[in-house]
Design goal:
alpha/beta; eleven-stranded mixed sheet; five-stranded antiparallel sheet; 10 helices
Length: about 375
């Protein structure tokens, strides 16, 4: 009987097993992807900050955080929303997803290995109208109430701070006011010894070379006040313009444009996608592909995997019986390794979307 994949852990990491290569075979991914190095699970190879996102709808991420906990400095479960319910009234939802038992376990694990990693749930400004933002921006009382409510929530729930995702909601409007709000929020959180991480869109708009929605100007205004910036250097391509998830030269440009003088590089968390995209030539459609589906596709179609030197990503093509031609771009050990090397060279940290979507042997690289 042919063994399709190993679930046994290995004594050697993926580098020593000769798996971090350009010339990649589908059968090797299928065989090896679950086999990570059990001896070095507690060793870090990347010295910058590592933020890992976890989604409640993909529970494997919770296990990854337990197994490889020491490889991360920040863990962000995407649990929370803040809604504005009227003048100076804010309501937090999503707490039903907050997994107290898991938090206890990961905190205990990190104590045992003397690594402090922080649990910083992501919070979305959910259902906010333009008018809601205007009202809050125009009132110091509103800003103070929102900041104090968030501090209280963190204290009550034993969070170490928050990852705030709000920037893209206002398009290119009201940036000055948003900066003002974030500076206030950061001050309130810091007084309570809590962290504020801001999610930011790419500084170079994908496919255009135009400035993105968050530029050097805003970065300079916020860099001293925000603890880290989670930079979304992925989703470069679209179903209308299929192609790579995160071309290496573009990733480099996004960091250099924000911080050309390398003043705050350690605060930039260069975004790595641990999911891929499956594009269909028919009707220009595309959908995200996660690790499990990727392995199934490799088993079913046994494709030839191609390396694109310029973008530094692997991809493959396959045909569905009635569905025509597909192209899949999904990260590999080699593509991740090159992005980690780039982060080291640029002096940044990394952020990973998200922990349950990758293949287990990816974590040998961190």
């Amino acid at each position: 009987m042919v063994k399709l994949h190993k679930t046994l852990h290995s004594d050697k990491n993926v580098q020593d097993r000769g798996l971090v290569v350009v010339d990649l075979k589908a059968k090797d991914i299928i065989l090896e992807h679950r086999s990570y190095c059990s001896k070095k699970m507690r060793e870090r190879h990347f010295s910058g900050d590592v933020l890992g996102y976890i989604t409640p709808w993909n529970s494997h991420g919770y296990d990854i955080a337990k197994i490889f906990g020491n490889k991360f400095t920040l863990i962000s479960p995407v649990w929370l929303q803040v809604k504005r319910r009227g003048k100076e009234r804010f309501q937090f939802t999503g707490l039903h997803d907050a997994d107290k038992g898991w938090m206890k376990v990961v905190r205990k694990n990190s104590k045992n290995i003397k690594i402090v990693y922080l649990i910083v749930p992501r919070i979305l400004f959910d259902g906010w109208t333009y008018q809601d933002f205007e009202s809050v921006f125009g009132s110091e009382d509103e800003i103070e109430e929102l900041s104090e409510s968030m501090v209280l929530l963190a204290k009550n729930e034993n969070f170490d701070g928050f990852v705030v995702e709000v920037w893209s909601q206002l398009g290119n409007q009201k940036q000055r006011e948003l900066v003002h709000l974030l500076l206030h929020l950061s001050e309130a959180l810091h007084e309570a010894h809590l962290k504020l991480i801001l999610v930011i869109p790419p500084a170079v708009a994908a496919g255009t070379n135009q400035p993105g929605m968050f530029t050097k100007k805003e970065f300079d205004q916020l860099a001293s006040a925000i603890d880290s910036f989670s930079l979304m250097t992925y989703d470069y391509s679209t179903p209308q313009r299929p192609g790579p998830n995160s071309p290496l030269p573009w990733v480099r440009a996004c960091v250099q444009v924000l911080d050309p003088d390398s003043k705050w590089r350690n605060k930039i968390l260069l975004g790595l996608n641990f999911y891929g995209m499956d594009y269909s030539a028919l009707g220009a459609t595309g959908e995200p592909i996660l690790g499990s589906r990727y392995i199934e596709t490799l088993k079913e179609h046994k494709p030839k995997i191609v390396w694109d030197e310029q973008i530094a990503e692997h991809y493959f093509e396959y045909k569905k019986n009635k569905g025509g031609k597909h192209a899949v771009f999904y990260p590999t050990l080699k593509s991740i390794q090159l992005r980690l090397e780039l982060a080291k060279e640029l002096g940044t940290g990394i952020s990973i979307w998200e922990l349950g979507q990758g293949l287990d042997y990816f974590y040998d690289l961190l």
